[in-house]
Write a structure and sequence with these properties.
Number of domains: 1
Strand content: 15-25%
Strand order of the largest sheet: 3-6-2-1-9-13-14-12
CATH topology: Carbamate kinase
Oligomer: single chain
CATH class: Alpha Beta
Radius of gyration: 17 Å
Number of helices: 10
Structural class: alpha/beta
Length: about 270
C-alpha cells in the first residue's frame, strides 16, 4: 500500500497582501505552519508550495517577465523577480524552522527548464530523498529558463503539476490549495457576495465552470483561478484529486490533512 502524500499550496493572496508590495501576512503564515506541525505530528507527509503574492508578482508585472526576453531589461528583470520570490520563501522558511519543522527549500529555477511556460524537465531526485527522511520539501512560484521565450514564470501550480505526475506511481497523492475564499464560485466572491459556491468540479461541469472563472483578486501574472482549475482538472484525469479551501479559516488546513470534513471545492474526474 502506497503512503499518502499531500501537495499543499499556500496561495500568494493568502500569505501576502497583494494590494501592498512586499507585505507578508505573518499572522496567517504562522497559524498555517502550526496547523502543518500538528498534522505532521500525526504522521502526515507533505510537500509544501507557496505562491509569490505581492513579492515577485510586482516585479514580474513591471518587467513583463511572463512574456520572456522581450527587451534589454528582461534579463535584469528575471533576476529581480527571482530575488523577490526568494525573499518570501525565506520568510516562510524562517517560520517553519522557528516552529521546529524539518523543512528544506527547493529552488525551482535551479532544477527546472520550461518551454512556453510549461515545465519540460525537473531534477527531483533530491526532493524524493528528502521525503524518505521525513523532511518537507518547500517549493515556490519562481522565474525560470524557458527554451522558447528565454524566461518564464513558473507558477506554483505548474511546479506541483510536474511533481504530481512524477510522484503518482510512488505515492497516493492529494492536493490541497489554500486560498482566501472557500473554493470556486460562479463569480469572484470578493467582488460579488452573491456569487454561487461550486462544491465539486468534474467532467460533468468543467466546461461550464471555466466560463465563470476570471483572474484573481489583485495583481496576478499566473492566470488566477482559471489557471488553478485547468491544472487541477488535468491532474484529476490522472487520478490525482484535489480540494481548494479557505486558508483564512482556522484549522481548515489541519482538518483536511488529518481526514476531517472541510468546506471546499473538490476537483476530480
Amino acid at each position: 500500500m502506497r503512503d499518502r502524500l499531500f501537495l499543499v499550496k499556500f496561495g500568494g493572496s493568502l500569505i501576502t497582501d497583494k494590494t501592498k508590495p512586499y507585505t507578508p501576512r505573518l499572522d496567517v503564515i504562522k497559524r498555517l505552519i502550526m496547523e502543518i506541525k500538528d498534522a505532521v505530528s500525526e504522521g502526515v507527509k507533505l510537500i509544501l508550495g507557496h505562491g509569490g503574492g505581492s513579492f515577485p508578482h510586482v516585479s514580474a508585472t513591471k518587467y513583463q517577465t511572463h512574456k520572456g526576453f522581450i527587451n534589454e531589461n528582461s534579463v535584469y528583470g528575471m533576476a529581480v523577480v527571482h530575488n523577490d520570490a526568494m525573499k518570501l520563501n525565506k520568510i516562510i522558511m524562517d517560520e517553519l524552522l522557528n516552529a521546529g519543522i524539518k523543512a528544506f527549500p527547493i529552488q525551482p529555477s535551479s532544477i527546472a527548464i520550461a518551454e512556453n511556460s510549461r515545465i519540460k524537465e525537473m531534477y527531483i531526485k533530491p526532493l524524493k530523498i528528502l521525503l524518505k527522511y521525513g523532511v518537507i520539501p518547500v517549493v515556490y512560484g519562481d522565474v525560470g529558463v524557458d527554451l522558447k521565450k528565454g524566461c518564464c514564470i513558473m507558477s506554483t501550480e505548474e511546479i506541483l503539476r510536474y511533481l504530481a505526475l512524477k510522484l503518482k506511481d510512488e505515492y497516493d497523492l492529494f492536493i490541497v490549495m489554500c486560498e482566501v475564499v472557500d473554493g470556486v464560485y460562479t463569480e469572484d466572491p470578493l467582488k460579488r457576495p452573491d456569487a454561487e459556491f461550486i462544491e465539486e468540479i468534474s467532467s460533468k461541469n468543467i466546461d461550464e465552470v471555466k466560463k465563470y472563472l476570471s483572474s484573481s483578486h489583485g495583481i496576478d501574472v499566473t492566470g488566477g483561478m482559471l489557471h488553478k482549475v485547468n491544472i487541477l482538472f488535468e491532474l484529476a484525469k490522472e487520478g490525482i484529486n484535489s480540494i481548494i479551501i479557505n486558508g483564512l479559516v482556522e484549522n481548515n488546513l489541519k482538518n483536511v490533512l488529518t481526514g476531517k470534513p472541510v468546506r471546499g471545492t473538490i476537483i476530480k474526474y
